[in-house]
Design brief:
- This protein is an alpha/beta fold and about 240 residues long.
- About 35% of the residues lie in helices and about 25% in strands.
- The protein has eight helices and nine strands.
- The strands form two sheets. The protein has a six-stranded mixed beta sheet with strand order 5-6-7-3-8-9, sandwiched between helices. A three-stranded antiparallel beta sheet has the order 2-1-4.
- Helix 4 packs parallel to helix 5.
- The radius of gyration is 18 Å and the shape is globular.
- The two termini are about 30 Å apart.
């Protein structure tokens, strides 16, 4: 079994405001192994995005412990590309921020863009690209910093349904090809089943782990192909029931 690259151990988080306390997470325990693609689903408002902030170290648990092995790359719901910078300059941005803007790292970022179909668009600006291509550029930008863990915060939610299916396939292929570890937050059960090796189901707030499932698609990792499998609907129905207990 591969090593754990991220672990939540009895993690609780309580927000303090003038109106009182709100417990967002309580006694959360789960882990993500190296090279694994894990999806987390849960009822609306249960604090899924809070988990990514804890994983990234942007929030500190009120109790318990979050252990990370390596660095995190964060991919948001929208591509957040700067419209006044070319795609190439957008991809270089994490290198500039981290003061790692070397010729070698820029070359690696450009090679990633070329490998995944953006080579002809490096001098284009975000408004000139489709939503799907912009989201692919956002992923390449995240990968340019060479993170050990990818944190994906509903990265397809801003896209229309057809584009969403295609981009989902593209992003999954890139993550698998680059052998990256990924933690996906999503409200879409179909998305979780089509993408993940394992799905974690959270309770209503305060979020706890209610169920955890290893998916049985074998070597099939293409989301669009998984949707054609018989077990896809079985998993969908089970997870739907678990979310609506």
């Amino acid at each position: 079994m591969k090593n754990e690259i991220l672990r939540f151990e009895n993690v609780s988080l309580t927000y303090h405001t003038r109106r009182g306390e709100t417990t967002a997470a309580e006694n959360l325990t789960f882990s993500v192994r190296e090279g694994e693609f894990v999806a987390i689903i849960g009822p609306s408002g249960c604090g899924k995005t809070t988990l990514l902030s804890l994983a990234a170290g942007l929030l500190v648990p009120s109790s318990g412990k979050v252990t990370r092995q390596g660095t995190c790359g964060y991919m948001l719901q929208k591509d957040e590309l700067f419209p006044w910078r070319t795609i190439e300059k957008n991809i270089f941005l994490p290198l500039e921020i981290a003061r790692k803007n070397t010729a070698e790292r820029r070359k690696r970022a450009v090679e990633l863009a070329q490998k995944y179909g953006l080579g002809d668009f490096l001098q284009s600006y975000p408004p000139q690209l489709s939503g799907g291509m912009r989201q692919r550029a956002a992923l390449i930008r995240t990968l340019a910093a060479e993170p050990d863990i990818l944190l994906l915060d509903e990265p397809f939610s801003a896209l229309d349904y057809q584009t969403r299916l295609n981009v989902c396939d593209d992003v999954a292929a890139i993550i698998r090809s680059e052998q990256k570890t990924a933690l996906l937050i999503t409200h879409d059960i179909s998305e979780a089943v089509s993408l993940a090796d394992r799905v974690i189901v959270l309770t209503k707030r305060p979020a706890r782990v209610a169920y955890e499932h290893e998916l049985d698609f074998g070597e099939e990792t293409r989301p669009i192909k998984r949707r054609e499998k018989g077990q896809f609907s079985t998993w969908f129905e089970l997870l739907w029931k678990e979310l609506n207990v």
